[in-house]
Write a structure and sequence with these properties.
The complex is a heterodimer of chains A (296) and B (339). Chain A is mainly alpha-helical and 296 residues long. Chain A has one domain: ABC transporter involved in vitamin B12 uptake, BtuC, CATH 1.10.3470. Chain A is 74% helix and 3% strand. A two-stranded antiparallel sheet of chain A has the order 1-2. In chain A, α10 runs antiparallel to α11 (268-283). Chain A starts with a helix and ends in a 13-residue tail after the last helix. Chain B is an all-alpha fold. In chain B, 75% of the residues lie in helices and 1% in strands. A two-stranded antiparallel sheet of chain B has the order 1-2. In chain B, α3 packs parallel to α8 (166-189) and α13 crosses α14 (271-285). The two termini of chain B are 39 Å apart. The chains are: A mainly alpha (296), B mainly alpha (339). At the A-B interface, α3, α4, α9 and α11 of A face α6, α13 and α15 of B. Chain A: InterPro entries: ABC_transp_permease, BCAA_transport_permease. Chain A: One of its GO terms (molecular function) is transmembrane transporter activity. Chain A: It is found in: Cell membrane.
């Protein structure tokens, strides 16, 4: 019943979907690593990116690649503004005890953005069929061009993010801040700037993925909720705050979902994923790929 | 006589406020009559006690229970399903719902309360989602998204509880709320409550004193889970139909409860009454603003956190302090707003 080409098909589907989850998770992990809060509004940044992409391409008629850049840049600005306008003042006021409040603050932002979108755009789904219609055939394995595009986009973004964090000065500064904020500050890194930029990058990643996935997840007010849950799963499996862990866990989750959908009776794959996350939280709270030995 | 009077002056004033409040809560819906007002007050009381239970965890031990709606769900379905399949009465169902939720709380707590605070938040979130997904999928048992019909409360001591008379349910929840609140208040005021505050203010320092921090957290968490489950069970028999949606038993319900606790003022328990009166009341008064409702919830949350972190309770306390210092008393205990 499940022949080799079906398995290949499932694997490709899973990896391309999962790479996107990985990137969402990477943004979330980056923000968690630097600021120490789980950004509950991350799904809403995805949603805003999707709306921006839709309006740029379908209403204003901007070519898709340029629209993608616009939406990514726009979401970077939104992220920086969110950090500077709301999160930074809270951190300044509460000092080291701001974490719980910071976490709840992002819930407030999530609720406001979600419902403003509902009021402004209504519950309608703004989606497109495909940026690149058609499909590729390799023997019995059929892959839609859109999937190829998404997989390429995910791999490109993952590579770019990795290079940025590994090789550029800003990327090094971000990693240094994640590791030891006080030491980074002594070395002349402007921590406040790193906070803002990191939040911006996380937001830009979410926006870019929201734009790229417009054919899979059309823009509607609560689309972020579903995506946020996936990003959470990825971040927990990969280890809280671990960007590399999230990038690895993404494709893993994608594969599990793809196989679970094919093998388990309809609807149960969500339960399976949640149970898996609970198992990781209980058995390996530091994440599957973490070498951390200290108590989390 | 005078010294006795002075000694009991402060509790007396408090007792007076509580009696006035209870009398008001007992009288208003029956004086106004009709069905609408009792229903609104029932939902105010329900949100008040859920906010207070959330605050019992957050405001005293900094446990963020993101899955509080999941515990509500466990209580609701626990009671409804056992009434349907094991033919117990809804009254036993209240206990069964509470126990179902407490067991989930115990397991979750044992497994994650020893970890950093963020883990309990994430774990409860996923416990909630797992429950909700499982209930949606187990259609043969729970009827899934088409909704589980639940019967009302059966007559007790000859008092009938017809759903057509919301006032009977209102008095029932009033009694439940009083019992629950008294239990929470007793815990918070006892030695255990002192330990809670010590842990909240300095967890490491408290553990160095030889206090088993995790055990206190677990006690707090399981007690709160139990009561949330009881009110879940009440909700099931009150509302009559259970649907496993995010609005009912998912993240959105959690956000509502959390906002009420924050807006009311953390670390006070009673603040949630103000939060519930404000948010539920406002949403009833501004019915036309349906879609702006959640925007207002979110904005109040943002405003409270960034501008006025001690909430309504903090504002009221400041007002009370000013009043009593002007009257030249100023002798009562002034507790600082929550850190």
């Amino acid at each position: 019943m499940f022949t080799a080409d079906v398995l290949i098909q499932l694997t490709i589907d899973g990896v391309s979907r999962g790479a996107m989850y990985g990137l969402m998770g990477a943004g979330l992990a980056l923000i968690f690593g630097i600021l120490g809060i789980i950004n509950m509004a991350h799904g809403e940044l995805f949603m805003l990116g999707a709306y921006a992409m839709y309006f740029a391409t379908m209403v204003l008629g901007v070519p898709a690649p340029i629209a993608l850049l616009i939406s990514t840049a726009l979401m970077f600005c939104v992220g920086v503004a969110m950090e500077r306008g709301l999160i930074a003042p809270l951190r300044a006021r509460l000092g080291s005890r701001w974490l719980v409040d910071g976490y709840v603050l992002t819930i407030g932002i999530m609720v406001v953005l979600q419902n403003l979108a509902l009021i402004l755009f209504g519950p309608r789904e703004f989606g497109i069929a495909a940026f690149w219609p058609g499909r590729q055939e390799f023997g019995d394995v059929v892959i839609s061009n859109e999937r190829v595009l998404i997989l390429a986009g995910a791999l490109f973004t993952t590579g770019a993010l990795a290079l940025f964090l590994k090789k550029t000065n800003l990327g090094r500064a971000i990693r240094a801040t994640a590791e030891h904020p006080a030491a980074a500050q002594v070395l002349g890194i402007n921590i406040e700037r790193i906070y803002a930029i990191t939040f911006g990058i996380g937001a830009a990643l979410a926006g870019a993925i929201g734009s790229l996935l417009l054919s899979t997840y059309p823009a509607y007010p609560t689309v972020g909720g579903e995506v946020l849950l996936k990003a959470f799963v990825v971040v927990i499996i990969g280890g809280l705050g671990s960007v590399w862990g999230a990038m690895l866990a993404g494709p893993l989750l994608g594969l599990i979902e793809a196989y679970a959908t094919a093998f388990a009776p309809g609807g149960w794959q969500n339960t399976i994923t949640s149970l898996l996350v609970l198992a990781v939280l209980v058995l390996r709270p530091q994440g599957l790929f973490s070498r951390q030995v200290t108590r989390p | 006589m005078t010294s006795l009077f002075q000694k009991f002056r402060f509790p007396d004033r408090r007792a007076l406020v509580i009696c006035a409040l209870l009398a008001g809560l007992a009288a208003i819906p029956s004086l106004v009559g009709g069905r609408y007002i009792p229903a609104v007050f029932t939902s105010i009381l329900l949100f008040f006690i859920l906010g207070a239970l959330f605050d019992f965890m957050l405001g005293y031990l900094r446990i963020v229970n993101f899955g509080i709606a999941g515990f509500l769900c466990a209580g609701a379905y626990g009671s409804a399903l056992s009434v349907q399949y094991f033919h117990i009465t809804p009254w036993t169902g209240l206990l069964v719902g509470g126990l179902a939720s407490a067991v989930i709380g115990l397991i979750t707590g044992v497994l994650t309360l020893r970890l950093r605070g963020i883990y309990i938040g994430l774990t409860t979130l996923f416990v909630m989602e797992t429950l909700r997904f499982a209930i949606s999928n187990a259609r043969e048992v729970t009827r899934g998204a088409s909704g589980l019909t639940v019967g009302g409360f059966t007559p007790l001591f000859g008092i009938p509880f017809p759903r057509s008379e919301p006032i009977t349910y209102y008095y029932l929840i009033l009694a439940l709320v009083i019992v629950t609140y008294a239990a929470l208040y007793a815990i918070v005021r006892s030695r255990i409550g002192l330990v809670f505050k010590a842990i909240r203010d300095d967890e490491l320092g408290t553990s160095v004193l030889g206090i088993h921090v995790v055990r206190y957290k677990l006690f707090n968490f399981v007690v709160a889970s139990f009561f949330v489950g009881v009110f879940g069970a009440f909700y099931a028999h009150y509302i009559g139909i259970l649907v496993p949606t995010a609005e009912e038993f998912g993240i959105q319900r959690t956000v509502e409860i959390l906002t009420i606790a924050y807006v009311g003022g953390r670390g006070t328990l009673w603040g949630s009454l103000l939060g519930a009166l404000f948010l539920v009341g406002m949403q009833e008064v501004l019915r036309d603003l349906q879609e702006w409702r959640l925007v207002i919830y979110g904005l109040s949350l943002i405003l409270i956190i960034t501008v006025f972190p001690s909430g309504f309770a903090g504002a009221l306390r400041q007002l009370g302090d000013r009043f009593s210092s002007r009257a030249g008393k100023g002798a009562h205990i002034s507790t600082k707003g929550d850190a």
